[in-house]
Automatic annotation (TrEMBL):
<feature type="transmembrane region" description="Helical">
    <location>
        <begin position="418"/>
        <end position="440"/>
    </location>
</feature>
<feature type="transmembrane region" description="Helical">
    <location>
        <begin position="139"/>
        <end position="157"/>
    </location>
</feature>
<comment type="similarity">
    <text>Belongs to the reduced folate carrier (RFC) transporter (TC 2.A.48) family.</text>
</comment>
<protein>
    <submittedName>
        <fullName>Thiamine transporter 1-like</fullName>
    </submittedName>
</protein>
<keyword id="KW-1133">Transmembrane helix</keyword>
<feature type="transmembrane region" description="Helical">
    <location>
        <begin position="96"/>
        <end position="118"/>
    </location>
</feature>
<keyword id="KW-0813">Transport</keyword>
<dbReference type="GO" id="GO:0005886">
    <property type="term" value="C:plasma membrane"/>
</dbReference>
<feature type="transmembrane region" description="Helical">
    <location>
        <begin position="163"/>
        <end position="182"/>
    </location>
</feature>
<feature type="transmembrane region" description="Helical">
    <location>
        <begin position="353"/>
        <end position="372"/>
    </location>
</feature>
<feature type="transmembrane region" description="Helical">
    <location>
        <begin position="294"/>
        <end position="315"/>
    </location>
</feature>
<dbReference type="InterPro" id="IPR036259">
    <property type="entry name" value="MFS_trans_sf"/>
</dbReference>
<feature type="transmembrane region" description="Helical">
    <location>
        <begin position="327"/>
        <end position="347"/>
    </location>
</feature>
<feature type="transmembrane region" description="Helical">
    <location>
        <begin position="264"/>
        <end position="282"/>
    </location>
</feature>
<feature type="transmembrane region" description="Helical">
    <location>
        <begin position="384"/>
        <end position="406"/>
    </location>
</feature>
<dbReference type="GO" id="GO:0090482">
    <property type="term" value="F:vitamin transmembrane transporter activity"/>
</dbReference>
<feature type="transmembrane region" description="Helical">
    <location>
        <begin position="72"/>
        <end position="90"/>
    </location>
</feature>
Amino acid sequence: MHWLKISCILCLFGCFKEFRPSESFVTDYLTGSWKNFTADEVNQQIYPVSTYSYLATLVLIFLITDFVRYKPIIILCGVSGSITFLMIIFGKTILVFQILEFFYGLFMSTEVAYYTYIYAKVDKKHYQAVTSHTKAATLFGRSLSSIIAQLTASFNLLSYHELTYITLSACIFATGWSLFLPSVNQSMYFHRVSISDEEQGTRALDHQLQYSSSPQNVEKSKAKHCRFAISNASLLRKIKNAYALLWKHFIQAYTNYRVTKWSIWWALATCGYLQISSYIQLLWQTAVKPGDMIYNGAVDFIYAIVGAVTVFCVGKIQLNWTLIGDVILSIFSLLEGAILLGCFYSYNIWFLYFGYIAFGVVHHTMVTVASFEVAKSISEDSYGLVFGVNTFFALLTQSLLTLVVINTLKLNIREQFLIYGSYFMILAIVYIVMGIINVMQHCRSGADFHVWIGGGDRCLSVNNANDVKHVDN
């Protein structure tokens, strides 16, 4: 099947998976007359379960995804989402909602298959195109669901309860549509089409090659042996080879200082973002007066559109991130912390709306930078592993934060945002120190630096402030 057709099938699944209009008003739905939960019950007993579930299932899902070749996990993503929203409609007790939060955590962790499936089905030369397709599809689904949620709520066309039926229908359609995805015959670790001598071992290959003398026969023997070794390998051997390759890629990536530095910020910032996005509606409730119109859907729509534009633009900006990356990270972390502290003090709903949009746009912009900076320093085979590991540590940190702030200290929602704002302030201080040290080291050593000119087509490279040369991009 042509790669573009496969991309379209996958993107339609992603669009309907993200079409969840009820989520813009889910907190008001749970605390309203439909379910009658208190804000404290939602904050301390219901929402935290999905955080722990997401963490608990992510690693297992990541490995199983590769082993079962993606498609079954994509189907599981749709099924778990359908179960979640079906239980939301008919659930009444805290226990039922805690169970559905487990399925919601599973739903989020299975999204890894959606983002990695396409790389196993298309040639590497199409990676950039299909990556933009999958991200655009989820963005379109999220934007469309947000604006529909706002319009139906503003004009009293549908209640929050009826919006949940629309979300469930979209999830069921996405599940059915996923069945049309073509199966995957190979994967990165457990079902490799070809492997290197270093990964498989050379003893058996050397035994085969001793009977071949010409270069043509050598190449044929290599290819034949690799195919035979993979197709006939036992399950135990596949697991051992997969573990060895996983560990090799992990060590190669995280012994690189640049990868580790960007990954730490990525994980810690993502932890804070996930916490904010999970509990922001509870904060909005403290500023909304009885009878006021709620614009949660409009905020989600604006946030998605503005975020998409800034993420697209930052991919076009050419800066020496090696030199100034730490400083930029510290500045934006400081801005995020200031926004959250402002949200702690403010009871103006418009400020809270604007603060959430600005916080989300800043986060996605800098995570995009972190993503391509990490990608520059690792092999293509390591993309999924590194991104999965970073997400795991983000969820681990989020789970610890949830355990301390919500389940142990039992802080109210505004006190929580004071903690989250301070969290980003500390992150900013750490990276401003790292940034200052990095700039000082560059100045002392006279390290290479680049000044980008000519619209990004060529750059002026200055080595030790003495040698000047032009380098094509």
